[in-house]
Automatic annotation (TrEMBL):
Binding-site residues for heme c 2, renumbered to this chain: 187, 230, 233-234
Primary gene name: ccoP
The protein's name: Cbb3-type cytochrome c oxidase subunit
GO cellular component: plasma membrane
Cytochrome c domain: residues covered: 131-211, 218-298
Residues passing through the membrane, by range: 12-31, 63-82
UniProt source species: Parvibium lacunae
PANTHER family tied to this protein: CBB3-TYPE CYTOCHROME C OXIDASE SUBUNIT FIXP
Matching InterPro entries: CcoP_N, CcoP_N_sf, Cyt_c-like_dom, Cyt_c-like_dom_sf, Cyt_C_IC, Cyt_c_oxidase_cbb3_su3, Cytochrome_c_Oxidase_Subunit
Keyword Heme on entry: yes
Amino acid sequence: MADFTHSLWGTYITIVTIISILGCLWLLLALRSKKQDPNQPVKTMGHVWDETLEEYDHPLPRWWLWLFIITLVFAAVYLYLYPGLGTHSGAYAWSSAGQYEAEMKKMDAKVAPLFAKYLQQEIQQVAADPAARAMGEKLFLNYCAQCHGSDAQGSKGFPNLTDKDWLYGGDPATIKLTILNGRQGMMPPMAAAVGGEDDVRNVANYVLSLSGSAHDSIKAGFGKEKFAACAACHGADGKGNPALGAPNLSDKTWLYGGSIDTIMETINKGRSNAMPAFKERLGEAKIQVLAAYVWSLSNQESKPAQ
């Protein structure tokens, strides 16, 4: 019903459904009242298969009719108890979302003691616990791997969590805060700010020069002055600003790719990226364990020797 927002759609579906059930019931009762005259030969429907196999006009067997009637009664009871008649929520007010929430609350209550003890520990201490790290890995595979990959090395537009390059900072508290509240990253289109198409190419070459990547040194020289429009976020030296989530442009780690065309596309069109908040979905105790696992991915020294 989500696609049909007008209230009349619910009424329309309710009426059609009820009429359909009553119509089927009437048809079955009409067939039930039909009697065959034993003194008259049974008529055929005119359909013949394999030369001698004919279809006769016999009424349905009583047991078959009652089976259909029982089905209709079941449908009526079901539609009274559960949603199905337009906007009617049913006597039980059941919904798949409600059942999911109830099952999640039941499971959370069951596993809460397993996670609660880690909430009292420092994230580095949690990361050194093999049992906690195994729990964190399962949480990561369930909630984070869809974007960051099962190996946590990310992909285009999704950060690699196994290196030391962080947009907002890679300390334990910041990682936990990111998972709790999510992040909204946005770079506005900068083509107008730096100039025309040639200036965009010049700035892109200057950006490449900051990390020592292959570039046109002459165009990079022209782009250095225009880069001032980008320095407010990325800094005059291009080393970024974790407070804003502005990436470091002086290394060779690229979120969307480090080719000249990709950098020009970023300058021309900007970028927008979002990570959802997990505070309501997971709760702080689970996030403590998950943050410890994520932190351990780029701090292998936190793991005890096997």
